[in-house]
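Thread: "does anyone have the structure for this chain?"

Original post by V.I.:
We have the sequence but no experimental structure in hand. Need at least a predicted one for the grant figures.
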Amino acid sequence: MRGLSFISRFWRREDASATVEFVIVFPLVLLVFIAAFETAMLLTRQVMLEKALDGAVRYLRLTAGVSATHEEIRNNICANTPVLPDCENSLLLDVRVIDETTYALPDYQLLCVDRAGTATPANVFSPGMNNQLMLIRACAAVDRILPISGLGLELTRDETGAIHLLAANIFVNEPQ
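Reply from O.Q.:
Generated one for you, tokens below.
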């Protein structure tokens, strides 16, 4: 009888009710904070990739007669995008001339680096000649910072779980 009265008194006490609410609400608040941080980092990487690509496009546009390689442009973009981890291995460029009769653009599904090693994208690196309409695309495969955040469930990813950051720009090579 004495044990039963102890349980009944314990059940009626309300001095730990704030702790129970905290234990229920805190993980939800923490998850929202983590998702917001993850989103901010992903958007920062995207904006920096686009800005660095714009700088590379300016270089390509103004130096049509100079031979620029995939590695030179990639290294230029990576130098201006410090928030992309392992940029030299995760960034892939595609530079091609746009056919001015059809203006057909290539498919975006096969652009990014395949970290699983199953296939290599058939990307082109053709700096073009004077007065040609050019398309440059950059794709970086980045991992999420915290996979538990739930962010990126509908974003483009590969088999390894990397999110694809895409940036593109169209320009005309300036005449000399």
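V.I.: this helps a lot. Helices lie at 2-12, 17-62, 70-79, 87-90.
O.Q.: and Strands lie at 91-97, 133-142, 163-172.
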